[in-house]
Structures are given as C-alpha cells and as structure tokens.
Amino acid sequence: MLFAAGLGTRLRPLTDDRPKALVEVNGTPLLEIAIHRLIVAGCREIIVNVHHFAEQIIGFLKKNDHFGIRIAISDEREALLETGGGLKKAAWFFDDEKPFLVCNTDVLTNLDLQKFYQKHLESGALATLAVRNRPSSRSFLFDETMRLTGWQNTKTGETRWSKPIHQFTNSPTCLQRHPRPQPRHFRLDAGRRAEIFHRRNLPSGRRHGNHPRLPARRRFLV
Predict the structure, then answer these.
(1) Which of 38, 139, 167, 187 is the most buried (most CB within 10 A)?
(2) What is the pTM of this model?
(3) Of 107, 133, 151, which residue is a domain's last?
C-alpha cells in the first residue's frame, strides 16, 4: 500500500495545485519513484489511497497505464482517514492472508525491500518497522531487545508509552480486529511485539525512565 492522501502542508506552495505524491524529484513524481521501487522489489499489486487532488493521482495512473501492474484506488475524498483508518479502509485489498508492505510516497530510501520483507517472514513478528537514525525532535523508544515501546518529543518532553497490541500490523488477520474505517493514526499500539529491522547504525546509549515494565530503553529517531 502506498499512502498518497496527505495534504502536503509542509511542502507548500508546491502542493497548492497538486498532491504531494505528484511533486517531482529530478523531474520524476514521488509516486512514480515509489511504484518503480515496489515493482523492482517484486510487487505486482498495489493500492494507493487518495484525498488531496485525488483526481490528479487517478489521472496520472491512467495516463501511465498503471505502470503495467494492478493498481487499485482507496478513495478517501469524503474524509482523510490518516494512517490507521486509511489502512483499514483498504483492508479488502489484502485478501490473500500474506504480509504486505506499507510505504509513504514521500519517503525516498534505498532500503532493500526484498530483504526487508524476507526478514519479516523470518522474524515471526506481527509487524516489522524500518527506521533510520537522523536529526529529529521525534524519537521512537525501544527496550533492550529492540522492541518498540514508546514515543517521545524531545522538544516538549511529551512521552507516550505503548498499549497492548491491536492496531499496527502488516498482517491482514489483525486488520480484521480494527474497527470500521475512521480518521486515526497508528500510535504506539505495535508495542511489545513489533520487531525492528535494519539495525545498522543504532545508537549504543540507553535512556532510562520510570516506566515500571521497562527498566531500560533505547531511543531511535524517526
């Protein structure tokens, strides 16, 4: 699934007359870059959610003959459903009970998606999240086994801890537990069972806090 429904407010004025997914990098729209990466990784079926300037994205895909693969549209023109609600609305697309990839069109990365997918299959984790260490005021928090446990805003000091798992997953089975589509974010419900992949360049330091279940945590920027 490619998330392409966002308003792109941080890219204004570039997104005043187009969706963020069609903003170009070196003459190529972000959406096209993301689709080609998925095709190279072996994907032949993709669903794209749309909201902001939805008609432009739909027209762009038709103009390019859907890049020779099956590309479905999850229409959120009536209401932007955010990450969790958008994924739930598209749950019908993941009908083969196999793990699936979820990507943002505005993330440019050289992550090997085939290896990433295989690592998830081998891990037995409910969800696998690829993260990167970069300057940011928003940090994911991990325990000593590199399981996602929380989130922190380093500017405001706001910290949120994970809840029992039921929301974030790339398993179609767990999407069935999600309530009907509505605007919602995936917060920290991946919790204790989400395994983190791509461990290169992880910070060696640990951050200690007063959470009763987690004596030690690692921070990783997102």
Answers:
(1) 167
(2) 0.69
(3) 107
